[in-house]
Amino acid sequence: MTDVTLSAGAALLARLKTVGVDYIFANSGTDFPPIIEGLAEAAAKDIALPRALTIPHEHAAMGMAHGYYLASGRAQAVIAHTNVGLANCAIGALNAHVEHVPILLFSGRTPTVEKGRFGARTVPIGWGQEMRDQTSLVREASKWDYELRFPEQVTELVDRAHAIASSSPRGPVYVSLPREVLCEPCPAEFLDTSPSMTAHGLHASPGDLAGLAARIARAKLPVIFAQHGAGSAEGFAALARMTEAWGIPVCQYWAGQLALATDHPMCTSWDPAPLLAEADLVICLGVLAPWMPDAHTPQPDAFVVQLGPNPLSIRTPIRNFRADMAIAADTGPALVALEQALSEHKPDAAVRARFERVAARNQQDRAQALAAAAPDDAPGMTKAQIARALSDALEGDHATVLSELGCPMPPMRLTHHQAWYQEPHAGGLGWSLPAAMGMQLADPDRLIVATMGDGTYMFANPVVCHQIAEALELPILIIVLNNAEWGAVRQSVLGLYPEGHAARANQVPLTGLQPSPDFTLVARASRALAFRAESRAEFTEKLDQALAHVRARKGAALIDVSTRP
Locate the Thiamine pyrophosphate enzyme TPP-binding domain: which residues (predicted)? Predict the structure, then answer.
């Protein structure tokens, strides 16, 4: 691009393409003229850019970027409108931060001058949207932040933002973009050069892995807790082989991602208590909270290992789980290397006996979970029954299921490392629907199913999400498990006050969502196929129709199914 000059807005977009960004999820505002003109300018000059998508709400933009990364492993960009758009990004930034999902988050900044410079303030909101510290809206959720000061910074600034976001432990970064800076001319000679810096991973030392392997080999009752998957397909396969060979149960307590197939002989129930009561070696694999300290605790003489990209969760103020050994490493490569280190040891008869004992217990627990999800004659369906019916219908598909207070994991048969995602531990609701759309965008041939409660469906801003799904022709299946209440809040109240006034009266204030809207009308407004199901027979019939619709890539489909406790 020698002797070519672009606006800084166009240069920013072009550099995002160079570092590997495929999509820009954007909701525009009055600070966007240099961005929009930059898109047109780059097209006129035949300069490659990421595909820019109009996303009518920033929460959806953040969820789509999150889901795109889960499916592809590549960080994407979100551009929002000044402080108000950035405020709408905050929940998504919190979700991405807690889940170590890299997102390049940008927002405009109201022009810093009132006159005398191209791009200066031209409308009253230029004053109304000014903040002393706009970045404070997302600073705690960002690994790094900056404000573009001069147009010649664009190339190195984008390189640095992408490298930091994509380095372990991964996470979102934020850059504010003053309008008048984006309007300035920028030399383009370096825009298509290789990035000036690259992301780094984290790798466990051979000594640490050898020491951990030796502890596994001599442990009497080891256990693994996993919450954020196994890191990769290779890590998933290594964990499956390793735990089977060494008879190590894996507890996926409050898992956000699958680490071990649900039908694997070492996949245990969600209850940490019996495992911690006997374990002499506890390995916490990429976990935030492996158990609840007021209910569970390891044995005093147990050896506790924290392994993952952020083993001590250093940006979480209070997290006092033991770490007799902390190994900072990307989970997938660490599991592959640990399996290799274990090849220096040979399982003995005691290990084989442990495997048989643990496998028998797990088989019994799984049978009970499936029995609890079996059909019955009661009106409506439980979440477990819906999950089992969905799992049966997906048999043979290389599908991905997202659950946001939706279908629970235990009754489902989930067999690959991208089979399952649950809502982020940050608790920013409305995540699964836009995340499913982002995953579908990244992997068009995969069947994506987003399951959620009725409250979380409303949090997702469904009118916006359905509009996006229609505009981008995204054939996702949406299942709303509708109990007409904040079920999670109800359970939290009853858990803390089992004999309290709310429990005795069976009336839990501030949890009701009645009357329930007709969600099928919301979906049909954007030409989605939509059904309401009140019974198991209706649900299975409509599920078959909805799956046929999305498999044929005819668009999105929604089933609003009535649920009971």
Answer: 414-561
Q: What share of the chain is helix, strand, coil (3-state, %, to 5)?
A: 40, 15, 40
Contact present, 4 and 10 (Cβ < 8 Å): no
Q: State the residue for tokens 């019974």.
A: 535
Give CA–CA dist 422/102, Å, rounded. Answer: 18
CATH topology of domain 373-562: Rossmann fold (3.40.50)
Q: Return the CATH superfamily for domain 206-365.
A: TPP-binding domain (3.40.50.1220)
pLDDT at position 153, please?
94
Q: Which of 394, 393, 387 is nearest to 372 (CA)?
A: 387
Quick check: 30 and 62 in contact, CB under 8 A? no
Q: How do 185-187 and 5-7 pair as beta strands?
A: antiparallel
| pTM of the complete model | 0.96
Pairing of strands 103-109, 5-7: unpaired
List, as one string, the DSSP characters of 10-74.
Answer: HHHHHHHHHTT--EEEE---TT-HHHHHHHHHHHHTT---PEEEE-SSHHHHHHHHHHHHHHHS-
Quote the pLDDT of residue 240: 98
At residue 376, the pLDDT reads: 87
CATH topology agreement for domains 5-187 and 206-365: yes
Rg (CA), the chain: 25
How far is it, in rounded angstroms, from Cα 216 to Cα 245? 11
pLDDT mean by block of 10 residues, the chain; 565 residues: 74 95 94 88 90 97 98 98 96 97 95 88 89 96 96 95 98 96 86 91 97 98 97 98 98 96 96 95 96 93 97 93 98 98 97 97 94 86 96 95 96 96 96 98 97 96 98 98 82 82 77 87 98 94 97 97 90
- CATH architecture observed for domain 5-187: 3-Layer(aba) Sandwich (3.40)
CA angle (493, 495, 497) in 5-degree steps: 65
- The SS3 call for residue 1 is coil
| Distance from C-alpha of 158 to C-alpha of 153, rounded to nearest angstrom | 9
CA-to-CA separations, 261 to 237, 265, 297, 418, 471, in angstroms, rounded? 10, 9, 26, 11, 35
Angle at 162 between CA 159 and CA 165, to 5 degrees: 145
Listed by start position, the domains of the chain span 5-187, 206-365, 373-562
Alpha carbon 133 to its chain centroid, in Å, reads 28
